[in-house]
Amino acid sequence: MSGETNLSILIKSMQPMLQEGDYVFASVKDIKLLNLDEVLFYFREKEEITVVIKREYADVMQLSYNYISAWITLNIHSSLEAVGLTAAFAGALAQDGISCNVVAAFYHDHIFVAKTDSVKAMEALLKLSANPNS
Question: Is residue 2 part of a domain?
């Protein structure tokens, strides 16, 4: 498996980066109704298909949503077999009262937080990275 597995290295080297834009979680019955070039990711659930897309595209497509989020990418290539990274950053965010929704992709972990918490979330992640044993 490619990617880093050492938790200490993962935390010290995670280099969180706040992506531009507002992102929303919405659901659709048929993914074919959307332009897949506009879909950040989707997940098929038994009820419907959850999509994460830019807010502007959701508005154009008249999709309903109630959670506007910011997208933070951890720029360390983390292994899908790594243990503890999600718990570490989720715990750091929770200490500051920030909820997070996490997507582990092949190369990086992606964190979605409420747009209003984006600055506070970046501060918490940078603090964790600078002091991984705190």
Answer: no
Structure token pair of residue 102: 């996490």
CA distance 100 to 102: 6
Q: How far apart are the first and last CA of the chain?
A: 29
pLDDT score at 1? 61
- CATH code, 43: 3.30.2130.10
For the chain, 134 residues long, the average pLDDT of each consecutive 10-residue run is: 88 96 97 95 96 98 97 96 94 97 95 98 97 73
Cα separation of 33 and 25, whole Å?
Answer: 16
pTM equals: 0.93
Contacts of 38 (CB under 8 A, 6+ apart): 53, 54, 57
For the CA atoms of 97, 103, 108, 110, what is the dihedral angle to 10 degrees? -40
Structure tokens belonging to residue 54? 């830019």
DSSP 42-67: EEE-SS-EEEEEEHHHHHHTT---S-
* 1 inside domain: no
Place of tokens 């992102």: 23
